[in-house]
Amino acid sequence: MRAPTERQSAPETRDRILDAAEALFVEHGFEATSMRMITGQAGANIAAVNYHFGSKDALIQEVFKRRLTELNRRRLAALDRLEAEAGGAALKPSRIVEAFFGTALEMAADTAHGGHTFMRLLGRTYTEPNGFVRQFLAEEYAEAVERFLAALYRALPDVPREEILWRFHFMMGAMSYAIAGTDALQLFAGKFDDADPERLLPRLMSFLLGGLRAPLPGQGVPGENGKGAPRTQN
Amino acid sequence: MRAPTERQSAPETRDRILDAAEALFVEHGFEATSMRMITGQAGANIAAVNYHFGSKDALIQEVFKRRLTELNRRRLAALDRLEAEAGGAALKPSRIVEAFFGTALEMAADTAHGGHTFMRLLGRTYTEPNGFVRQFLAEEYAEAVERFLAALYRALPDVPREEILWRFHFMMGAMSYAIAGTDALQLFAGKFDDADPERLLPRLMSFLLGGLRAPLPGQGVPGENGKGAPRTQN
DNA sequence: GTATGATTAAAACAATCGTTTGATTGATGA
DNA sequence: TCATCAATCAAACGATTGTTTTAATCATAC
């Protein structure tokens, strides 16, 4: 018999396992976190994971699903709001970027309900080698990426879509680092005097918008390779 | 007896193991890559890793060391060259950024000598949970980060050092994604019509410099939290 | 009280992990 | 020709992995 996925009866253990798994995954990674570590921290029996979720992989998926679905729901709701306010007109790029990345940072700032822990985990997982995790994340993100890219295309009609795509990609990277931040690779350990999370949003947003609005790279004549500086005035 | 680390006698097997490990690590991650997978792909005996390197952890370190030492050596050489040319004057920020990130992208573009594989691995490893890998990377990077930050501080005397630090952090994230790129999280799978690696450098450089030169976020009056848009004109 | 069905518990499963052992190989120099 | 020593090999080590099994426990409805 399979796990009773949609029952209202077992809230306790199931949620404790999800919370424990989330915290341990961010600390040790998926592979290095054993079922015994998870159930131990959750105060549950070793068999509980397979009973409630079916397998370790299914647990990993559920850890992401319960938060990621909500995150992208909020993102799309913010975009809906913007588009309703604009009433057919193109949106300002800054508002689009804010809706996407600001919403993520809002969740990352929520230390009370586990949002912070999860966003650190998510930041790391974008580069996760594990195939099924990647595919699952891509599916969860598909709609949001589609809608936000479309909004950016409309907002920046003069910028080649290829460039917008790349810059959206770069922005994702900057945000991941911003959130994994001071606790991921401690490359700047002890250098941050002011790691106030309140100021992270405006800091990141300035950077992202600066990158998005940067002068386009010189339309590289094929054969003139990339060694030279791109066309900027700095 | 320990491994003969500094002998000229055993080039073959040792290097084949390093190459195989590098390729497998980028594909499956450290934990999910077993000694038997490595030695199998390298055409060596299972005992060869412990003989030549001492342990799996030591092998991981060696995989990074042989490339990372060279990468940061080139970075520092590029910075030395710039400073020699400038003869005491402050450098242009664009040149500093180019010396640091351009050098990395150069190595990433080198598919012939394994540089490409390694840079994909490195991009992922910045967010590696494994403690000893993080510490090792931080040590390898310490000098380069120190010198490049100092150069940026000099080049941008009017920008608070705190902001430069954060933006350097953001740039690292954008670069990691740029390199891990199309094969990491396939969030934009099938969307890139033009993934020409020749054009990646100018594209990334424009973005990074745009972010670095972006208007500073409004000096947030404590209490005015981050929900509002930062002060940009877009 | 008794049956029902979801949940928990202890114990064991086969498989794989990183590492070690002890013997063998093959080239080197005396 | 023999000794030396780095290198390779097959085989096994104990520990840990995710998962399964079987029995016990619990609350609820009849």
Automatic annotation (TrEMBL), chains A, B:
UniProt keyword annotation of DNA-binding present: yes
SUPFAM superfamilies named in the record: Homeodomain-like, Tetracyclin repressor-like, C-terminal domain
In this protein, which residues make up the domain named HTH tetR-type? 11-71
PROSITE patterns linked? HTH_TETR_1, HTH_TETR_2
Keywords for this protein: DNA-binding, Repressor, Transcription, Transcription regulation
DNA-binding region in chain numbering = 34-53
Family annotation (PANTHER family) = HTH-TYPE TRANSCRIPTIONAL REGULATOR RUTR, TRANSCRIPTIONAL REGULATORY PROTEIN
Protein name in UniProt: TetR family transcriptional regulator
The taxonomy runs: Bacteria, Pseudomonadati, Pseudomonadota, Betaproteobacteria, Rhodocyclales
